[in-house]
Amino acid sequence: MADRGGTIYAARPWLRQYSPGMPSDIEVPFESALDMFNAVAASSADRPLVHYFGRTLTIGEVDRATDALAAAFVERGFARGERVALYLQNVPQFVLAVIATWKAGGIVVSVNPMNKGRELTYVLEDSGASVLVTLESLYAEVARDVVASVKTVRTVVTTNELDFLGDERPALLAGSTKAPQDGALDLVALIAAHDGQKVPSPSLRAEEVAFLSYTSGTTGPPKGATNTHRNVVFNSEAYRTWMSLTPDDIVLGVAPLFHITGLIAHLTVALLVPMPIVLGYRFDPATMLDLIERYRPTFTVGAITVYIALMNDPTCEGRDLSSLTKLYSGGAPIAPSVVERFEQEVGAYIHNIYGLTETTSPSHGVPMGARAPVDPTSGALSVGVPIFNTIVRVIDDEGNDVAVGEIGEFVTSGPQVVTGYWNKPEETAHALPGGDLHTGDVGFMDADGWYYVVDRKKDMIIASGYKVWPREVEDMLYQNPAVREAAVVGLPDEYRGETVKAFVSLRPGATATEAELIQFCKERMAAYKYPRSIEFVDELPKTVTGKILRRELRTQPSG
C-alpha cells in the first residue's frame, strides 16, 4: 500500500501489534443481510434470538413470523425496492419488520421515535416510504395526521409494546395499554392471518440498499445515508471478528435500534453470529440493570452517557454486572476519567470505538484486550486503529496529507462506506468525492498508529485568536470527582471573539461551585482554554442515542 507522506494508514501493522492473531483483512461472508439471516434460520432455528422482558423468540419463530409479514406486505402491493419506514422503540417488532422488509425485497427506513410531525413528514416524503410500521401510541399522537398528507404511504401497520411480553409487565410499561387504531392494520393480526405463507426469495444483491439511515441534520436537513447490503454484512462481520463474538455471547440493546449503532452493533451482528439480543423498549438505567442481571449479556456498544447513567443509577450498588466483559462505547467523545471510574466502580473496561452513519457504524476501534492510550498533550483518549480493510487519511483544509501528530480532517475509505445520500447528488459529491468519506471530524494519528478525535470541525472555538477544542475542556471537567456530565460551547464575546462556557451536571450527592470548577480547570489548562463561566443543569440535552447536543446549549438562555 502506498504511503503518501505517512498519512494513509490501514489497520494492518497495528492490529498485529496490539491484538496478536487478529486478521488484517476479512472477507464479506454473504451477498446480503437477508442471506445472512437465512443461513442461521436454516442451521439454528431453535436458538434464542430476542429476549424481551419475560418473553423469548427463537430464530425459527422469527423466521416464520417474518415470512408471514413479508407475505402481508406483498399482498398489499409492496414491490421490490420500495421502502418500509419503522417508527418504533426497541421492541421485538423492530427486528421482525426489518427481516420482513428484506424478504419482500424492500429497503428499511429507520425513523427516530422522538421525531415529531414535521420531522416524520420529512423522512417519509424524502424516502418515499410506501409502508409505515409504528407503535399505536406514536400513530395516535403523531403519525395519523402525518400519513394523511404524505401521498406515498399506502399501508400503515401498528403494534404495541405489550404485544410480545410474557406473563409479566415491567414497571417501565406500567402505563401502556393496547389500543388498536382505526385506519391501520395490526401487526400481530397480520402475522396470524398470513401464518405459513412465504414469498419468493428476492435474491438481494450486495450493492442494493439495506437501510436508509437518516443523519441527525446538524448541518442542514437530515440526509438518508444509503447503507448497502455489502456495507451491512461487512461491518456485521467486522464486529463479530473484532470482538471475538460467538453464539455463547448475548448483546444488550442499550442503543436505539433506529440508529446505526443499534442496527449494526446490536441487530445485524446478532443475526450473523447468531446470538440473542436483549431489548428493553427504551433505555432506562434501572430497567437495563434488571435485564443485565436476568439475561447475563456479555457485549454491548453504547454512548458513554449510557455507562455514566448505569453507574450513577441509585440501584446500581450491589448489582452483579460481571457478565459484561466486552464493552464498547462510541458516538461521542469519551473522557479517560470516566472509563477509569467505570472500571473502578463496575469492574469492566470500556473500549473505544468510532464510526459514523456513513461508515455503517465502525471505522476505528480499540482491539479487544488492548487499552486505548491517552494523548499526553490534549488528554484525549484514542478511538483506536482503523478496522479491517479500512484506510483513513488525515488532511488539511487544502486536501493535503498532514504529518504524523498533526491535526486534520479524517477521510475514510473501505467496504463499510456508503455509496451516498438518497436522492441528493450534490451532497453526495461534496461528502464523498471519489467515494472517500470526508467525515467532518478533526483529529490526528500518533507515531504508533493510534487515532484521536479532537472534535467536530464546526465546534471549534476561537478565543483571542487561539483554537480551543471543547472536548479537551470537557475531559478536564470529567477529572473532577463531582462532575457527572459536561458540555462546552463557544459563545460570542466582544473582547475575545468567543469565550468558553461549560454546562455541568453533578453526580448524585456531590457539590461544587462555579468558582471551584473554574479554578480546577485554570490550574490545569492554558489560560485561553479554561471556561470563563459554568452553568449547572440537572440534565444535559441529548439525542436519543445519548449524544450531548451542544447546539441546543449555544442557543438556550443562561440560567
Question: How would you portray this structure in words?
Answer:
The strands form six sheets. A seven-stranded mixed beta sheet has the order 8-7-6-4-5-9-10, sandwiched between helices. Strands 1-18-19-20-21 form a five-stranded antiparallel beta sheet. The chain has a five-stranded mixed beta sheet with strand order 13-14-15-16-17, sandwiched between helices. It folds into two domains: 438 residues, 3-Layer(aba) Sandwich (Rossmann fold), CATH 3.40.50.12780; 96 residues, ANL, C-terminal domain (GMP Synthetase, Chain A, domain 3), CATH 3.30.300.30. The N terminus is likely disordered. The radius of gyration is 23 Å and the shape is globular. The chain has 559 residues and is α/β, with parallel strands linked by helices. The chain contains 16 helices and 26 strands. Helix content is 30%, strand content 23%. A hairpin with a 4-residue loop joins β15 and β16. The termini are far apart. α3 packs across α4, α3 packs across α7 and α8 packs across α9.
